[in-house]
Amino acid sequence: MALGRILVVDDEAPVREVLIEYFTTEGYAVESAGSGAEALTAVRGGRADLVLLDVRMPGLDGVQVLRKIRELNEDVPVIMVTANEDVGLAKETLRLGAFDYVAKPFDFDYLDRAVAAGLARAGEKAPPGPAPEDNPWKRLARAAFGAARAMQPPARTSTGERIETAALAAARNAAAGRCAVADEHLAEIELLLDVAAEFGDLPAADRALVESALEAARRSLPAAG
Fold first, then answer.
1. What burial letters (b/e) apply to 169-184, b meaning 16+ CB within 10 Å?
2. CATH classification for the domain delimited by 136-220, as one of 1.25.40.10, 3.30.565.10, 1.20.1440.60, 3.40.47.10
3. Is residue 132's pLDDT more than 90?
4. Is 65 exposed, middle or buried (0-12, 13-18, 19+ CB in 10 A)?
5. Nearest-angstrom CA–CA distance, 120 and 117
6. Are the C-beta atoms of residues 174 and 181 closer than 8 Å to each other?
7. CB atoms closer than 10 angstroms to residue 193
8. Does the pLDDT of residue 1 top 90, yes or no?
């Protein structure tokens, strides 16, 4: 079961191919679009949980596409992809409703966390009631990223990012059938929660949400035998 549906929008085929291969390997369902018009068709059809959107494209550029996506859907997270010289423009897109931006060449560790955080934010904005699919690993990612992103900067860097990384690793190993490794990452999350709570970096309510999601994920693993 995929961790989420990512729409990669870039007019350069090699960039699309790199991102498709990377995120597919990481456990996401990935669709691509080579133009702004194709991207809007996909978003209009509800085929994306998150959009990776190139800033510079012929025809409809990334800024125009972002504006139109926001008219279609206020909640789908959009991460802008930009060359280094366009970082100033990418920062401006945050005021237009972009969730984040990343520069080429990619820092895949940062990109990985940005995508997971965007999907976690989208999960928080989902309407109340039963989820369309009961995926304990998505629930764990949402809880872990929500708790980590709420930490103050020093703790966010020292402990929060490790919680995010462990949650992603647990989900990916579970999806690949490496249940023992997934369980090791769950144990790592438990340890990090203890550390964060001991130093006053994690409110009790946030910790309880992560622990509840963690136990649901552990129950979903097949019993050793």
1. bbbbbbeeeebeebbe
2. 1.20.1440.60
3. no
4. buried
5. 5
6. no
7. 21
8. no
Is 30 in a helix, a strand, or coil? strand
Whether the Cβ atoms of residue 213 and residue 137 lie closer than 8 Å to each other: no
Nearest residue to 79 (alpha-carbon basis) of 105, 50, 58? 50
Residue 146 is predicted with a pLDDT of 83
107 DSSP assignment: -
- CA 171 to the chain's CA centroid: 12
Cα angle: 86, vertex 91, 96; to 5 degrees: 120
Cα separation, 2 vs 16, in Å, equals 19
For domain 5-125, which CATH number applies: 3.40.1390.10, 3.40.50.2300, 3.90.1300.10, 3.40.50.360?
A: 3.40.50.2300
Q: Using CA of residue 27, residue 73, residue 39, residue 111, what is the dihedral sign?
A: negative
> Residue 76's pLDDT is what?
94
Q: How far apart are CA 16 and CA 7, in angstroms?
A: 10
Phi/psi at 52 (5° precision): -100, 115
The residue among 49, 19, 25, 43 whose CA lies nearest residue 133 is: 49
What's the length of the chain?
Answer: 225
Give the predicted TM-score (pTM) of the model. Answer: 0.69
And the tokens for 137?
């690993």
Please say whether the beta carbons of 52 and 101 come within 8 A. no
Query: Average model confidence (pLDDT) for the chain?
Result: 88
Contact 146, 223 (CB under 8 A): no
